[in-house]
Specification:
By secondary structure, this protein is mainly alpha-helical. It contains ten helices and no strands. It has a domain of 173 residues. It is found in: Membrane. Pfam families: Cytochrom_C_asm (PF01578). Keywords: Cytochrome c-type biogenesis, Membrane, Transmembrane, Transmembrane helix.
C-alpha cells in the first residue's frame, strides 16, 4: 500500500470508530433508561405487597426479570460495540504511522496524540471492565471518547508529515507512551471522582426526602467503592506521569535543546499537574483525605492536565513544543 492509501485508511478507520462509538453510546443510554423501573411494574409491586395476590407476585416477577434481562443485554451489547470501536481505532493508529515516510509512531502532533490518548482510555476501560465492574462507566467513557475524537477531527486534524528534528528521537516513544498512558488513566480516575460527587449529592437529596436512590445512579458503586477506585487509578497513573514529566521529559529536552528545563509553558503546566496529584496522594496517605475533598482535588488535577494539553496550545505562542501548536495557531489565524 502507498502512503496515501495508508492515510486514507487511517482517516476512514477513525470515522468508522467514531460511528461505532456513537452506536455504543446510544446502546448504553438505552441501558440506563431501561434501568428505570416502569410505572406499571411499581404499581404491581405495590399491589402485590398490599394484597399478597399470587397474580400480582407473578406479574411483578416477570416484569422484573424482563427488565433485568433487557438491561443485561444492552450492557453486553454496549461493551461489545465499545471493544469493536477500540479495535477499529487501533487500525487507525497503525495506518497513521504507516502513512509516514519513513514509518513512525503516530505521535507527531496534537491530532495524533489525541487519537492515541482516547484509544488508551478505551483500552483501559475494556481491560479493567470485569476486574473492577466498570459497566456503569460505559456511557461516560464512550461519551468522552466520542466528544474528544470529534474535537480532534474537526479542529486538530493535520496531514501526515515526517517528524521534526526535535521529535526524531528514541525518547519520543518512551516519553510520549508514558504521557499517553498517564493521561488516559488520570481521565478514568477523574470520571470516578465526578461520579463520586454526583452520587454523594443524589444520596444526600434522597436522604432529605426520605426516598431511596433509584434509576441508573443506583447501579453506580457506593461511595466507599468509588473512592477506592479513584485512589487506585490515580496511584497507578502518578508514577507513570512522574516518569514522563520528571525523568524522560528533561532527558529528551537536554538532547533536543541542550537544557534539562526551559520554563516552557507545557513543562511548567506538566509540573503543576504533577504537584496537584502529588498533593492528592500525599493528603490521602497522611491527612486521611477521603471522599469529597479528595474527589475535588483529583478533578483540579485533571483540569490542569487537559488545560496543559489543549489550553496551552491555544493560548500560548511561546511554547517550544511547536510541533504541538502549529495546527492550533493555524486555526486561530483562520478564525481571526
Amino acid at each position: 500500500m502507498t502512503n496515501a492509501a495508508w492515510e486514507t485508511l487511517s482517516n476512514q478507520a477513525i470515522a468508522t470508530a467514531g460511528l461505532v462509538y456513537f452506536l455504543a453510546l446510544l446502546v448504553h443510554l438505552a441501558e440506563w433508561a431501561a434501568v428505570r423501573q416502569p410505572r406499571e411494574g411499581r404499581e404491581l409491586q405495590v399491589a402485590a405487597a398490599a394484597g399478597g395476590s399470587r397474580d400480582g407476585r407473578s406479574a411483578t416477577s416477570s416484569t422484573s426479570e424482563a427488565s433485568s434481562g433487557r438491561v443485561a443485554f444492552l450492557g453486553r451489547l454496549g461493551f461489545l460495540l465499545t471493544a469493536l470501536a477500540g479495535a477499529v481505532h487501533l487500525v487507525a493508529l497503525v495506518g497513521r504511522g504507516m502513512a509516514a515516510d519513513p514509518n513512525r509512531v503516530p505521535w507527531g502532533n496534537m491530532y495524533e496524540f489525541t487519537i492515541s490518548g482516547t484509544f488508551v482510555v478505551t483500552l483501559l476501560y475494556v481491560a479493567l471492565y470485569k476486574r473492577f465492574g466498570l459497566g456503569w462507566m460505559g456511557p461516560l467513557v464512550v461519551g468522552f471518547v466520542v466528544t474528544t475524537l470529534m474535537v480532534a477531527v474537526i479542529w486538530l486534524h493535520d496531514e501526515v508529515a515526517p517528524l521534526t528534528e526535535a521529535l526524531n528521537s528514541p525518547w519520543l516513544i518512551i516519553h510520549v507512551v508514558s504521557a499517553i498512558i498517564a493521561t488516559g488513566t488520570f481521565t478514568l480516575g477523574g470520571i470516578a471522582s465526578v461520579m463520586y460527587l454526583v452520587r454523594a449529592r443524589a444520596e444526600r437529596r434522597a436522604t432529605e426526602s426520605g426516598a431511596e436512590l433509584t434509576g441508573w445512579l443506583a447501579r453506580v458503586p457506593n461511595l466507599p467503592a468509588l473512592d477506592r477506585l479513584a485512589y487506585r487509578v490515580h496511584a497507578f497513573a502518578f508514577p507513570v506521569w512522574t516518569f514522563a514529566v520528571l525523568i524522560t521529559g528533561p532527558i529528551w529536552a537536554h538532547e533536543a535543546w541542550s537544557r534539562y528545563w526551559n520554563w516552557d509553558p507545557k513543562e511548567v503546566w506538566a509540573f503543576i499537574t504533577w504537584v496537584v496529584y502529588a498533593g492528592y496522594l500525599h493528603a490521602r496517605a497522611t491527612a486521611g483525605w477521603k471522599g469529597r475533598n479528595a474527589a475535588v482535588l483529583a478533578l483540579i488535577g485533571l483540569a490542569t492536565l487537559w488545560f496543559n494539553f489543549i489550553g496551552i496550545n491555544y493560548f500560548s505562542s511561546t511554547s517550544q513544543h511547536s510541533y504541538a501548536v502549529e495546527r492550533v495557531v493555524e486555526v486561530r489565524s483562520v478564525e481571526s
